Amino acid sequence: MMTLPNPSYTGKVRDVFDLGNELILVSTDRVSAFDVVFRQTVPDKGKILNRISAEWFRTFRDVPNHVISTDISSFPEPFRNRPELEGRSILVKKCRRIDFECVVRGYLSGSGWKEYKENGTLAFKKLPSGMSESEKLPEPVFTPAIKNDSGHDENVSEKRMEEELGTDLFRILKEKSISIYSRAAELVGKAGILLCDTKFEFGILDGQVILIDEILTPDSSRYWSAETYRKGTTPPSMDKQILRNYLEASGWNKQPPAPNLPENLISELAAAYQQIQDRLLQCLSQEST
């Protein structure tokens, strides 16, 4: 069997092979937080994220996206039927990435809660006074961020995004993002899951805006169980927020090198990823029947 080439690009948690007009994205078991990659890995994390994302792409197949195949038997050589790629890779169309993260929030939490406490705003827009942590927002709010290849992504206003991309493209991205979030939140809500917030990425191929990257995974989204949700608290997470919460409390300055993670935290993360996969896949399978 031929040796796999080195990845064309190694991201924080994914390896990318550039095939010209196509890419192979490989979800590894690496884990990152605050744009820093940790030495330890979370067993089977990559396979779980890959499967969840693939199922969401199938659920929203009416939205143009970059997916070609998740079946490694259809991959070109030397990537075809490689055991190390099984279950954790996807063949996609290569396109021009739009360098903004399209974040949608349905609840006041995380960095959104921090901004509100300091300024009474969310994404630089005023919110009603007297809101509580984790409170459901009157309607989903679009809170974009500009992608930085080095350093942290930067939260920006809608106005700045519109100025940089143009009004038409900005409106398309905002409308698509809020629509997908709203549909997903309604769908998982039937299964007792709350979609607190999520991020989408888009690209342009042949003049068309398409959905790219991963969607609605526990790395790109904040999920809560309706059973444990309480306004005015930080609800228990079903996603990577478990790691962020641990790090926030640890006193780490969020700069490399990454600290060692305790084994019990790794086990907790692995169990959380498995739990949200099982609940989401059950929910999505019921929707497709």
UniProtKB/TrEMBL annotation:
<dbReference type="InterPro" id="IPR001636">
    <property type="entry name" value="SAICAR_synth"/>
</dbReference>
<feature type="domain" description="SAICAR synthetase/ADE2 N-terminal">
    <location>
        <begin position="9"/>
        <end position="257"/>
    </location>
</feature>
<keyword id="KW-0436">Ligase</keyword>
<dbReference type="Pfam" id="PF01259">
    <property type="entry name" value="SAICAR_synt"/>
</dbReference>
<dbReference type="GO" id="GO:0004639">
    <property type="term" value="F:phosphoribosylaminoimidazolesuccinocarboxamide synthase activity"/>
</dbReference>
<keyword id="KW-0658">Purine biosynthesis</keyword>
<comment type="pathway">
    <text>Purine metabolism; IMP biosynthesis via de novo pathway; 5-amino-1-(5-phospho-D-ribosyl)imidazole-4-carboxamide from 5-amino-1-(5-phospho-D-ribosyl)imidazole-4-carboxylate: step 1/2.</text>
</comment>
<dbReference type="InterPro" id="IPR018236">
    <property type="entry name" value="SAICAR_synthetase_CS"/>
</dbReference>
<comment type="similarity">
    <text>Belongs to the SAICAR synthetase family.</text>
</comment>
<dbReference type="InterPro" id="IPR028923">
    <property type="entry name" value="SAICAR_synt/ADE2_N"/>
</dbReference>
<keyword id="KW-0067">ATP-binding</keyword>
<dbReference type="GO" id="GO:0005737">
    <property type="term" value="C:cytoplasm"/>
</dbReference>
<keyword id="KW-0547">Nucleotide-binding</keyword>
<dbReference type="GO" id="GO:0006189">
    <property type="term" value="P:'de novo' IMP biosynthetic process"/>
</dbReference>
<protein>
    <recommendedName>
        <fullName>Phosphoribosylaminoimidazole-succinocarboxamide synthase</fullName>
        <ecNumber>6.3.2.6</ecNumber>
    </recommendedName>
</protein>
<dbReference type="GO" id="GO:0005524">
    <property type="term" value="F:ATP binding"/>
</dbReference>
